[in-house]
Amino acid sequence: MGWCCGKKSGMGAGVVVAVFLPVYLGMVVLANQDDERRSDVVVSQIVGDESPVETEQEMKMSSKDVLGYEFEMLDGSTRSLEDFRGSVVMFVNVASACGLTPQYEGLEAMYQKYKDDGLVIVGFPANEFGAQEPGTNEEIALFCSNEYGVTFPMAGKIVVKGDGVHPLYAQLAAQPDPIGGEPEWNFAKFLVNRKGEVVMRFPSRTAPEDAGLISAVEGLLGEE
User: Fold this and answer.
1) 61-221, which class in CATH?
2) Among 103, 161, 176, 204, which has the minimal tally of Cβ within 10 Å of its Cβ?
3) Annotated active-site positions, please?
4) 178: how many CB neighbours lie within 10 A of its CB?
5) Contact assessment for residue 209 and residue 106, using Cβ atoms and an 8 Å cutoff
6) Mean pLDDT to the nearest integer, 178-198
């Protein structure tokens, strides 16, 4: 009788072990999964959800330093805006068939007057406003030379607003007011100090002879 009870008792223990072992293993797996999830949450909180590439791009767009770009120029050469670091730079989006096109004359006069003091004017032909710059780079270069004797640097044709906007003008637009925003029309003017930082903006209709613009240029030229 005792043997029988002992045998029955041994079978009972085996059943308990057989039933309990999968449950125990399942609990271990779930516990490990919980630990992994908690670790993921901690890591997410530490590094954030944004990727390093997105963070770097956002920092680039918000930076005031706008000289980190290369351009194909009208003559087909490649020029880096870094070449102008240490100078005062004016960016102007230009067009050949605009009512403001005669500003080329004033811009060239300003360039001639102040270039030895460190002023650089860079023209960016663009066709986004009234399709007033429809020509090729070769046609634009010929027009600028023949009609206005332009000698300041002229980039090849780019997009300055909307789809396909060049990263330089995307960065300019991303600046806080009163500098930021897309150009309102042809011949919008952005001033960059000797450190490469965009610091002022003048509307399209501000002529190169405008006293406020001249004062701003002279002030920046006077800075170290």
Assistant:
1) alpha beta
2) 176
3) 98
4) 8
5) yes
6) 98
